[in-house]
Amino acid sequence: MLSFDPSEISMAKLHGYLLSGIEPRPIAFTSTVDKKGIPYLSTFSSFNVFSINPPVLILTLVKRSKGSMYKQVIENIKLTKEVVINVINYDIVHQMSLYESKNEKGINKFEKVGLRTISSEKIKPLRLAESPIQLECKINDIIEFKEGVVAENLIICEVLKLHIKEELLDENKNIDQNKLELIAHAGNSLKTETKVSDFDLSKLDALEGIGIDSIPEEIKNSDVLTGKNLAMLGKIISIPSDDDVDKFTKDHTEFIGLNKLKKHTFAKEFLEKKDVISAWKVLLMK
Fold first, then answer.
1. What is the pLDDT of residues 41-67, one digit of tens each?
2. Nearest to 161 by CA among 181, 180, 136, 143
3. At the topology level of CATH, where does 6-204 sit?
4. In this model, does residue 132 exceed pLDDT 90?
5. Staple partner for 128: which of 86, 104, 196, 213, CB 3.0–4.6 Å?
6. C-alpha angle with apex 242: 239 to 247, nearest 5 degrees?
7. pLDDT for res 227
């Protein structure tokens, strides 16, 4: 058996052992508000249940990994003592990936990733309508372990109100885990219990995408394309040019003259094959 004191190895090695050996770690979108009441969206890659009576959750945020987002989240939490924890399932994993692709200050993340907000009942921060479980929490304490670049914070939250989508419940009003399909970190990969065993986060192509807010309204308001589809479209660096679309049209004459419904249906098929560029070109055909 390999045995050692944590101080005897590098932080990088210790990080790898702990995060690969203790998993899965559930992921959440958290929403807070700043001193002006402006809503702010962030992700936490490490949170869990700590107590049932009282109902307490813990969040952890690493300063080095989040940059300016870290500062804003901690500032909001310290100021308002409120946070909504919105769990992430397979249906919104692409929105999570799109969120990670662009973290500049001043960007409206709710619009960028195409997630709808709804009012909370006990606190000011908003809930995410697409999240299967939303937890309104007050902050009981924040423990800062270390000063410096790699400072870690343990945020202790008490649940004030719990919201669970009805379709996740069985006949006894218990959560059906097969319907929930939560996303969690497993080492360096993402994991879900039902759709796929695990998958690599890098394969979600979390680049500096244009965001859902930059997609034309006709496409965003589609009756065919889902939020997941729109998130995939929003992860491209730039929309295909007219010349690119014209060339695609010449090579794929079968798509000429299609109505909106059929174009969106074919685009969805391309997205299911992870061919985002072709999906865009079909959508942009005249």
1. 887 777 889 999 999 999 887 655 545
2. 136
3. Pnp Oxidase; Chain A (2.30.110)
4. yes
5. 86
6. 110
7. 83
Question: CA gyration radius for the chain?
Answer: 21
Start-end of H helices in the chain = 11-21, 63-66, 68-80, 93-100, 109-113, 177-180, 217-220, 227-233, 242-251, 260-272, 276-284
Find out whether 235 and 97 touch, Cβ atoms under 8 Å. yes
pTM for this predicted structure: 0.71
What is the pLDDT, as a whole number, of residue 69?
62
Tokens of 200: 């690599």
Rounded to whole angstroms, the Cα distance separating 284 from 277 reads: 11
pLDDT the model gives residue 195: 54
Q: Read out DSSP for 129-169?
A: TT-SEEEEEEEEEEEE---STT-EEEEEEEEEEEEE-GGGB
pLDDT digits (tens, 9 = 90+) for 198-250: 455 444 544 567 777 888 888 988 999 988 888 888 878 888 888 888 888 88
Residue scoring higher pLDDT (86 or 188): 86
Q: How far apart are CA 271 and CA 236, in angstroms?
A: 12
Q: Whole-angstrom Cα distance, residue 188 to residue 203?
A: 12
Task: Return the closest-CA partner of residue 99 out of 226, 218, 227, 216.
Answer: 227
Look at the block and give the residue holding tokens 């219990």: 193
Phi-psi region of 166 (alpha: psi -120 to 50; beta: other; left: phi over 0): alpha
CA-based torsion, 71, 15, 191, 219: positive or negative: positive
Chain region(s) in the chain for CATH 2.30.110.10:
6-204
